[in-house]
Design goal:
The chain has seven helices and eleven strands. The protein has 224 residues and is α+β, with helices and mostly antiparallel strands. Strands 1-2-3-4 form a four-stranded antiparallel beta sheet, with no helix packed on it. The longest helix is centred in the first third of the chain and has 22 residues. The two termini are 15 Å apart.
Length: 224
């Protein structure tokens, strides 16, 4: 394990891969489609419109990938930092109970999900430093986990609706997107056993390797 005391460990997201390539490809395809439009617009209007839309989607995907932060996670001796284009959060190692890979039951077997879960000692440790914008984004990014839970009858479908009711935590009242995110977090904790879910698209290595690294960093921090 790299020594967090001597240096910080930075993790880059997979989602940023090929962003620049897709931007260049999208630009080229759009120019090609525009040229083809000049030649065959009268005969193939609908097909050419679909072609242009497809090229635009390639370009947009490239921009979205390229706009991802250079670093998705930063591990130091004291804390774990999460970086997102909509905000960030940080946690001290001692505030984390455990890391693990959540799993779910299907009709035929129990499968591991492409996430690393984090169980916290106290959700207020992150509720007080997460931005409403990031909280709102995480609600939508975690929708697949909730849909899976509803499909497996682990929660009722109506419970999956976003609730913007005030959320009370340690005698403090949270409102708006943060309250909605806290409500969703409690739902996911009841189903999968974790408060936070880190998708494997944010890792520059195998999920198992990153999970092992997180556990090692926490163990190391506990010895300081």
């Amino acid at each position: 394990m790299q020594n967090p005391v001597e240096e910080q460990i930075t993790i880059k997201p997979k989602t940023k891969n090929n962003g620049l390539f897709l931007i260049c490809l999208g630009v080229i395809l759009i120019f090609v489609s525009m040229f083809v439009n000049l030649l065959y617009w009268d005969e193939y209007k609908i097909q050419l419109m679909l072609l242009f839309l497809t090229c635009s989607i390639v370009l947009l995907t490239g921009f979205l990938k390229y706009s991802e932060p250079e670093i998705s996670y930063k591990l130091t001796r004291q804390q774990l930092y999460f970086h997102h284009r909509n905000g960030n959060w940080k946690l001290k190692w001692e505030s984390i109970v455990r890391f693990g890979q959540p799993s779910a039951n299907t009709i035929f077997e129990r499968i591991d999900l492409p996430y690393i879960g984090i169980k916290l000692k106290d959700m207020s440790l992150i509720a007080d430093n997460i931005s409403p914008r990031l909280a709102n984004k995480l609600i939508h990014e975690q929708r697949e986990l909730l849909i899976l839970a509803a499909r497996n009858n682990e929660i009722k479908l109506e419970s999956g609706l976003i609730s913007f009711e005030p959320f009370t935590l340690n005698h403090k009242i949270y409102k708006g997107p943060i309250a909605a995110w806290l409500f969703r977090t409690e739902q996911l904790n009841q189903v999968y056993g974790y408060h936070l879910y880190l998708p494997d698209s944010g890792f520059d290595r195998d999920l198992g390797d990153f999970l092992k690294l997180l556990k090692q960093c926490k163990e190391y921090a506990n010895t300081l």
